[in-house]
Amino acid sequence: xxxxxxxxxxxxxxxxxxxxxxxxxxxxxxxxxxxxxxxxxxxxxxxxxxxxxxxxxxxxxxxxxxxxxxxxxxxxxxxxxxxxxxxxxxxxxxxxxxxxxxxxxxxxxxxxxxxxxxxxxxxxxxxxxxxxxxxxxxxxxxxxxxxxxxxxxxxxxxxxxxxxxxxxxxxxxxxxxxxxxxxxxxxxxxxxxxxxxxxxxxxxxxxxxxxxxxxxxxxxxxxxxxxxxxxxxxxxxxxxxxxxxxxxxxxxxxxxxxxxxxxxxxxxxxxxxxxxxxxxxxxxxxxxxxxxxxxxxxxxxxxxxxxxxxxxxxxxxxxxxxxxxxxxxxxxxxxxxxxxxxxxxxxxxxxxxxxxxxxxxxxxxxxxxxxxxxxxxxxxxxxxxxxxxxxxxxxxxxxxxxxxxxxxxxxxxxxxxxxxxxxxxxxxxxxxxxxxxxxxxxxxxxxxxxxxxxxxxxxxxxxxxxx
Length: 467
Prior knowledge:
16 strands, single chain, Aspartate Aminotransferase, domain 2, 3 domains, Arc Repressor Mutant, subunit A, PyrdxlP-dep_Trfase_small, 15% strand, pyridoxal phosphate, 44% helix, 16 helices, Aspartate Aminotransferase, domain 1, alpha/beta, 8-stranded mixed β-sheet, pyridoxal phosphate binding
């Protein structure tokens, strides 16, 4: 009963203080989800309050989703939406990192390339050249759909001219691309399929649009096709959201066979594929060739989205979309209604950065650095965590997705808080599922924001927590 001890404040009703204290106990895992709360009379005697105070506190917990009453049995703790709670913790923690020295933390949760590798002198050179060349035009919003020069460069250098510049739309990143696409094609109660698990930012967009979200489990080479088609046969699906390379959070990449089969499904069952091309630049196996859904698409079914923020500089906030002809007008209108234009200076600078060959050099350098870190983290996971976790090596990207072994008596949300207390940031699996319980045995760790020493130190601390 000591867990429930509380020092009361005079100005706040006691039942409110008791409920607040118990919510905190449930949030941090000191009172487990489904654990029976103390009987009313017993807790009242322990806290020296009357029975009605405890009754009111329990009712408040029920109203706020922290408890459930079972007639004839008692009141039981119910863990509140872990997704929202941990997201809030994420935000607060990252604010602390920004306010303090980030070296205090081991950041295994970061999803962007480390800025210390960015050759700022090259970027400064192209910005100065753009300003000298274009003058005030470099700072003026002129083209709502994107700077034509950048669209030409994307067409030439990334698509070898197979995609026309007029079919490329510049956006402020993948998140805006997903939002724009969903506004153009998804209405309330439309049906959407996502991978299970998936990127929580996409889940948020689809929920905000009022869509019905169906999940298809991910296997080693893509979603389960049998489960996928079963949903298609029973429901009219508007779109399928997928991350074709190094899927967030699992690190899975699609096989060519599954890409072709899903493209066949798209034509047969009349739906669009929203392809979020996540970190395909970081393929470490030289024998693996890059093939997006879009490059294999013969029926114009793919809405392709690519962000430069993950691999380039987060602050540049640039990405692009390749849009099917049938959706071009509605998606462009959606972009115009979302914002007037994306930073003209950054677009022009990125265009010149690509033309001068700096982008290609930068990616080559990053691949070398991150391949080494990838191997280091993989080896430490195997050598230190051993059988406490299981995982499949992704072969690229920024992250490893780990499953906590059954004999380890801790879930990923508890692990998140314990790691946070040790100044280690991880991504608990509950963030990536519609049903939080599905992610309780998984967590993601990444190496993009850490050095070799921190990787070893962080994994050793995680090992102690799991023990």
